[in-house]
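Regression test case RT-17, inverse folding.

Input:
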């Protein structure tokens, strides 16, 4: 339904920005969150007119305050896209606790934090759409990513559990598992490693952020009410199961 309020975490760059723009173009009223990069946020808002809210999705109290502010500005949240994520790649024998913990908190605990802050209002209104951005590397694992793979795999379990709880209240909860998408995160992978990864993608290229946004727009639509607890893989055929 036109005018629904949509929140996209980590929404000023990369996949999140493409999602927010796609939702705006589809008639939603999006807000985005970001944590560190003020310059990117200013540029995003100037270009799109979509307001960016600065808070740390890994911190429950900041999420409470942030969601409250968004709801006061735009109205109660109908659509939540948990997209914010970071990498701290290293093989386990070189990984320290901070690298483990930062990724778990930012990528997985953030889903609890944000869902917890919108769920009461969605339940009261008998409507909600939640999409959690997982990863091919949560489905298949990835050398150098025990932290990221664990967090993303956790997102897939979280999605299926919350989908069962939300079903009777008109709240759908789905995940998208992107493959390697052309974003800053993927561009940070050493070129020789990335080359080998792309060589294993049947479609033969990196994905585009807009190709993930297309999946989100599909899942959050009002007439997608029978799609819940599913994972939509968008990975150019790199991993099929
Ligand atoms: N499988 C098997 N062996 C591998 C390997 C792999 N995938 N990747 C590297 N190795 C091997 C190397 O060949 C090397 O072996 P030799 O010494 O015998 O040549 C050994 O492991 C060490 O490799 P590095 O020199 O690269 O070791 P490093 O400690 O400097 O770096 C690393 C390790 C951090 C994991 C680095 O290889 C890396 O960044 N890899 C990319 C990881 C990746 O794909 N991250 C995804 C980020 S994007 C994302 O996460 C988005 C998403 O959702 C898809």
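Golden output:
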């Amino acid at each position: 339904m036109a005018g629904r309020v949509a929140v996209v975490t980590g929404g000023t760059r990369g996949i999140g920005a493409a999602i927010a723009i796609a939702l705006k173009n589809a008639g939603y009223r999006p807000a985005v969150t970001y944590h560190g990069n003020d310059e990117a946020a200013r540029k995003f808002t100037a270009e799109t007119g979509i307001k960016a809210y600065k808070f740390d999705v890994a911190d429950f109290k900041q999420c409470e305050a942030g969601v409250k502010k968004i709801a006061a500005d735009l109205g109660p949240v109908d659509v939540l896209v948990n997209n914010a994520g970071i990498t701290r790649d290293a093989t386990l024998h070189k990984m320290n606790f901070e690298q483990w913990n930062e990724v778990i908190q930012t990528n997985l605990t953030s889903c609890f934090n944000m869902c917890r802050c919108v769920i009461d209002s969605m339940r009261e209104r008998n409507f909600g759409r939640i999409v959690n951005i997982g990863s091919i590397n949560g489905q298949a694992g990835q050398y150098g990513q025990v932290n990221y793979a664990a967090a993303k795999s956790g997102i897939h379990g979280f999605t299926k559990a919350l989908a069962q709880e939300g079903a009777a209240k008109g709240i759908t909860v789905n995940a998208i598992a992107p493959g390697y998408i052309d974003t800053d995160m993927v561009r940070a992978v050493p070129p020789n490693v990335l080359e080998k990864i792309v060589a294993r993608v049947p479609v033969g290229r990196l994905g585009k952020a807009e190709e993930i946004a297309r999946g989100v727009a599909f899942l959050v639509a009002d007439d997608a009410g029978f799609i819940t607890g599913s994972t939509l893989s968008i990975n150019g055929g790199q991993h099929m199961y």
